[in-house]
Amino acid sequence: MVAALSGMFATAFVAATLVPAQSETVLVGLQLAGYPLLPLVIAASIGNTLGAVVNWAIGRGIEHYRGLRWFPVSPDTLDRAAGWYKRWGRWSLLLSWAPLGGDALTVAAGVLREPFWSFVILVAIAKTGRYAVLAAVTSGFIG
């Protein structure tokens, strides 16, 4: 059980950073293997939220390297995310769960100096909501 939850946490953490990974498949696989639902959702949510904090920290400190080849987000993606962020403000972080652009939103939040605690709360709501819905669909509670 500890190994499964640790693996879920680690996969969700990595998936939230700018490194490509699929935590949803791990969640569904572990859920179908019979692991308890609530601990899986908690481990995934905490890991994914903490991974997004890494992106926020990158945004806070690395914006002046923007445009360099190794910069972790393409300039177009960051500009698009910053546009969403400027238009919708911190509430755009409720889309941080999205597979396309969600990670860039968390970097943009750091670049645009979103306060840490409001960032963590909104991202945690978004990430937990995604995992809860996915787990509910897999269990047959929804759909």
Tell me what the structure shows.
It is built from six helices and no strands. The protein has 143 residues and is mainly alpha-helical. It has one domain. The longest helix has 26 residues, at 37-62. The mean pLDDT is 89.
Keywords for this structure?
143 residues, mainly alpha, elongated
Kindly report how far apart the N and C termini lie. 28 Å
Rg over CA atoms, rounded to whole Å, is 15 Å
Low-confidence stretches: none
**Into how many domains do the coordinates divide?**
1
Number of helices: 6
Layout of helices and strands:
Layout: H1 2-16, H2 23-32, H3 37-62, H4 75-88, H5 102-111, H6 116-139
Helix pairs in contact: 1-2, 1-3, 2-3, 2-6, 3-5, 3-6, 4-5
Care to give the gist of this entry?
The protein has 143 residues and is an all-alpha fold. The chain has 6 helices and no strands. The protein has one domain.
